[in-house]
Structures are given as C-alpha cells and as structure tokens.
C-alpha cells in the first residue's frame, strides 16, 4: 500500500540552483529524488512547500513523497537519505502522514531573513550568508524601499 512520507529539510543553498528540478539536475529536489531512487530502485517525485532560488538556504522546509510502501521506518528514511545526500542538504526528520496530507497545507508561516554586514571586512563564515557593504547605509531609505515592496507583493 502506498504511503506518504513528510520530510523536514534544511540546506545551504550556495552550491545549488534552487529547489525545483531543472535539466542540469543540480537542485535540492533533484538530489533528494536521486537519493530516494537509490534506496527504492525506482523514481520518486518529491513535492516541496514552495521553491527557493539559487543560493537560498532553508532551515526547515517541508516536503512530501509518495512511497510504494512503508517497508522502512520514518527514522530509517532520515538516516538513509542523509547517507546519500551531499553534506549541504540534510533531512532533519521524516514521518508518515495521511495520504491526503499536502506539504504547506498546515504551514503556519514563512520567514525570510536578509542579513546585511556593515563593516570594512566580511568574516569568511559570513560569506554567502550576508550582503556585505563596507559603507554606512541610509536606513530611512532602506525602510521606505522595503515598505514599498511589501505593499506591492
């Protein structure tokens, strides 16, 4: 009997072309689907709760996959997938859910965090995680611009 598996995934998106599968096959979705295929011996489509652009990170993105059976426990799926995924992609947890569960349906919120590093030098551990500007920023202009964008989104 087919079973739906919910996954909570974290990733450093720096080396990837975003979430959604593309022809070059270097997306988060592509890597996770290949890991499933290696375990099951057949393709499995994974459905994410939203997409991310190239270079974007996620702390806890929800997704689901419909599996042919529940031969492996949810905890075993977590271990098996992480053993096959690049270190920049981690399945934090898996659980079997009802087959009518839809990723994102129960999503409470989505938080976007944009970081700006205001200093002459950007520490190497902030590379790819913060926008670096060595000069002061006019925060009034930044705030006005963000309010305009939010009103039109």
Please give the largest β-sheet: 4 strands, antiparallel
The largest beta-sheet arranges its strands as 2-3-1-4
- State the separation between the terminal residues, measured CA to CA: 42 Å
Q: Which radius of gyration do the C-alpha atoms yield?
A: 19 Å
- Can you give the helix content as a percent range? 10-25%
Count of DSSP E strands? 6
Global morphology: elongated
Question: By helix and strand content, what is the structural category?
Answer: alpha+beta
Treating each run of at least 4 consecutive H or I residues as one helix, how many helices?
3
- Percent of residues in beta strands: 15-25%
Mean pLDDT: 85
Written as H for each helix and E for each strand, in order along the chain, the element string is EHEEHEEEH
What are the segments in which pLDDT stays under 50 over at least 5 consecutive residues? Answer: none
Give structural notes.
The chain is of the alpha+beta class and 153 residues long. 25% of the residues lie in helices and 24% in strands. The protein is built from 3 helices and 6 strands; from the N terminus they run βαββαβββα. Strands 2-3-1-4 form a 4-stranded antiparallel sheet. A two-stranded parallel sheet has the order 5-6. α1 (28-40) crosses α2 (74-84). The radius of gyration is 19 Å and the shape is elongated. 19% of the residues are buried.
State the gist of this model.
25% of the residues lie in helices and 24% in strands. By secondary structure, it is α+β, with helices and mostly antiparallel strands.
């Amino acid at each position: 009997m087919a079973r739906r598996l919910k996954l909570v995934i974290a990733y450093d998106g720096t080396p990837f072309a975003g979430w959604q599968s593309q022809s070059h096959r270097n997306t988060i979705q592509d890597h996770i689907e290949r890991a499933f295929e290696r375990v099951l011996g057949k393709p499995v489509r994974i459905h994410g709760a939203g997409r991310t652009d190239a270079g974007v990170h996620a702390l806890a993105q929800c997704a689901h996959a419909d599996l042919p059976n529940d031969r492996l426990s949810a905890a075993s799926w977590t271990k098996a997938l992480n053993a096959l995924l690049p270190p920049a992609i981690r399945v934090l947890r898996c659980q079997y859910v009802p087959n009518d569960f839809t990723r994102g349906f129960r999503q409470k919120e989505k938080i976007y965090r944009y970081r700006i590093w205001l200093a002459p030098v950007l520490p190497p551990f902030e590379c790819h995680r913060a926008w670096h500007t060595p000069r002061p920023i006019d925060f009034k202009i930044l705030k006005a611009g963000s309010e305009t964008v939010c009103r039109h989104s």
